[in-house]
């Protein structure tokens, strides 16, 4: 049938050219352009100040206090930036697109710095002066004492083999623990109020009966110093704005600068009184958390529409705010978040998360604390803002509950089908189920959201820490080769028997379970040591101030101070693992089309010379993603096996381990460390991502995909990721919009956690690959986040092109 | 109960009626429209499709064929259709996907089970099931259809039937109570035109439409239009005159510009393709036709499906 509606297709070069000019006002257009055109660069000011503080105080003060002094000195001495046009103030570094470094976690070598400067993708400019500083001041102090080196020294040889073989990754070797996400506390309380609470906690310490009293005192004192730190930053900005106002020739800007000064006189010391101050308050807290350490997930503002709505309502009612201004201020925040690239990464950490995106994942919609529908006027403004700004950062998404109005869902679908990857959709009712089953209160569960890619947390009350990805298909590969790794060409895992001697599928499956459990055990043993290192050496007293119960308990966020303390290991490649097991079960043990020996020689030979076998496993074998119970039952087995290996284990912070099923970009790395697999996937090709089917395996359309995926018990996880790709034509017109909305509702009714759409045609992507310069602004959904297509490496680009293009028929 | 052949079950179908639907394509049609997009829908028997361009000449099809119907010459596979019984042995084996079998017998119980899978999606979207083809009321036995329709109605699932109208009145009368909407095709009202392009006269089709109209059926009209065949203004005026004369009131009218999908599938079936000279009418012409219907009080009228 002919399709006349092309209004949705915004990916042509002409339309993208308009992207240079986004923003609802001229001010935003200017701010956004500067933010987008500036090359990310390294900033060593923080590292220098930190090194100075350590040299002066280390050994003479407790570790929490030392950490707090670093933040205080940084905020007292750092270069301030107040850009022309800005309404929100404050930068992590000296100016936009700065990436401060954290040598206490990872002390970059000069070689690291040259690589980050020269690499084609995700590069950060490093000057000769930076190199000189690093060599003379930073390296001499931090070499051999950064957390990364502590960790690597403390790991067993077995852990190192597994790490080297790509059996798992480690989140904390270069970044602080997180998923950090803001709750609602600091919109109701300023840091002088927090300080009073801290004083009260200090005064009620029981030094005679509580053996931890001194530890608590040190932690609380550190928290108090952090409150001073952020108040000093506010005060410095107030003075700077006043000084600029005095000399500003333009009367309009002069008034703005005075207003900024007034805002900074209120926040962060006191609670915000206006919508504008609420946004500035969040931004100061963001700077505090992300300057103290470099924790994962950028301390997202989380449920921003819920937090801002009371201020919006008051200001619009008393006539001091209109929608235009409210939108412009949101756009200022979008610019601020875009100004802050993810901390620079190297090595495996770069491979598992190869992006500038720092995952500030804003959730819009959902339900309120009292259970009522959470969609409000600010929710719609946020949708307008994300559509207008079209940025990969912040990662702006929606929560859909049973109560969410159709109008909101359709508006979100309307933006999603423009094909740049946002918003993605989270199932509020299912998130609440997850959190309740993990022991949260109903109220805390309703205040929850998804940060990072899809990871559920009770925001403001939970320290939920992702510890690394686990390569599930490679555990199966180990079972097929008796613990031998073809990549390293040595035995790294336990002996589980010669696969050719397995007489039944069950024997193979048992071998797989042993390998899987062993890999989890190796990872877990390392995790507990790493947790301990952070508990003792890298407390985060500022983050602890704004995370509930840390003050009351006198304990740090990294040491179990939060109300809830959860750890995750994220499973990768369940689609690939399922299809591999199905291929063997169906063809070797049931249909007896070929022997295990033939299968093994085919995967060793990368299927060269085995084209019939390849044809059978690719095209004549049940596969996950087709609503085929044969394959889907195997997926359920693998899921349950993985869940039971991890779920409920104790962490050191008084909480438990759970699982997530998401990859960021790790499915590409994990595929790269594997030879061919029994499902017909060739050597070094990416694994399936999230809980999506192996690419090309799903041939029965999106309805079958969501049914297959919904057979997983999503509520038993902390998040799952499903990627669906549509061509623009498939979602055209009002009918396309309704169909997309119905697909979301249906998946969520069946208990799905998350779904996201890539709506883009293959031709566009191929062209963009050939002519990256013409598609500078082309954003695609990679995994749990969007990124610029031009910034992805060729393998990842190819993978996105090859993902099955679902057609609406 | 004899089982009809189905050549495709398409889930998440958004162009065959309201909401999101699962469309069942039955194999077998009494008409031979020159522009037919799915020539494999025409015969009531399984057929082999052979896509020559995908063939690498490996010869596995020739060695596996129990009828000796397959051969390789000049590095490409061929099939002797007088010998081929469409058993599928070669299609199962072909590593390049050059061979496919169209048509699979399916029991009512199995079909219902498949169609119920997307119940939540139907409910969320206001969709359901569409029976299409081919011509479902010709391809499937009457009892089979009625059993299927009753089972779906029992589950509260909306059923649409996409029909060419060239069917027995008795079958139509039996399915009418169980069919929420008929998607009723009219190719032409004129005897000559209809016969020339579909191989059959239009009377039965038009009479069946009158029957549906008088007996409480709900139906949308779908007019597939191809320039050079049935898309002159007088063709449209004839259809309009018929509708007015008989007082026919469809829910909606869809003008479907058909375009040349190429001879690929015809070649794969070893059949000639007769529609290569036909083109879709221009947007302006379609808009003009739309206004003709609107002016006579028919609506809504949409272009494209």
Fold topology:
The complex is a heterodimer of chains A (809) and B (305).
Chain A: H1 13-17, H2 26-37, E1 41-43, H3 45-57, H4 63-77, E2 98-100, H5 110-118, H6 128-142, H7 147-154, H8 157-164, H9 191-203, H10 213-247, H11 251-266, H12 275-292, H13 304-317, H14 323-339, H15 347-352, E3 361-365, H16 377-389, E4 395-400, H17 406-416, E5 425-427, H18 428-437, H19 442-446, E6 448-451, E7 455-458, E8 462-471, H20 472-480, E9 484-485, E10 490-491, H21 505-537, H22 541-545, H23 550-553, E11 564-572, H24 574-590, H25 596-604, H26 611-619, H27 629-646, E12 656-660, H28 666-672, H29 701-710, E13 723-726, H30 733-749, E14 754-759, H31 762-770, E15 779-781, E16 786-788, H32 794-802
Parallel strand pairs in A: 1-2, 3-4, 4-5, 8-11, 11-12, 13-14
Antiparallel strand pairs in A: 5-14, 6-7, 9-10, 15-16
Helix pairs in contact in A: 2-14, 3-4, 3-6, 4-10, 7-21, 9-10, 10-11, 12-13, 12-14, 13-16, 14-16, 17-30, 20-21, 20-24, 21-27, 24-27, 31-32
Chain B: E1 5-13, E2 21-26, E3 47-50, H1 60-64, E4 70-73, E5 76-79, H2 89-93, E6 99-102, E7 104-105, H3 108-116, H4 119-125, E8 128-132, H5 136-139, H6 142-154, E9 159-163, H7 169-175, E10 181-185, H8 191-198, H9 203-214, E11 219-225, H10 233-246, E12 253-257, H11 264-268, H12 283-295, E13 301-303
Parallel strand pairs in B: 2-8, 8-9, 9-10, 10-11, 11-12, 12-13
Antiparallel strand pairs in B: 1-2, 1-7, 3-6, 4-5
Give your account of this protein's structure.
Chain A has a domain at 1-37 and 293-452 and 733-757 and 777-798. In chain A, 49% of the residues lie in helices and 9% in strands. Chain A is of the alpha/beta class. Mean pLDDT of chain A is 93; it is low at 1-13. With 305 residues, chain B is an alpha/beta fold. Chain B has two domains: 5-44 and 106-303, TIM Barrel (Alpha-Beta Barrel), CATH 3.20.20; 47-102, Alpha-Beta Plaits, CATH 3.30.70. Chain B contains twelve helices and 13 strands. In chain B, strand 4 and strand 5 (76-79) form a beta hairpin. In chain B, helix 3 (108-116) runs parallel beside helix 6. The mean pLDDT of chain B is 94. The interface between A and B is medium-sized, with 30 and 32 residues.
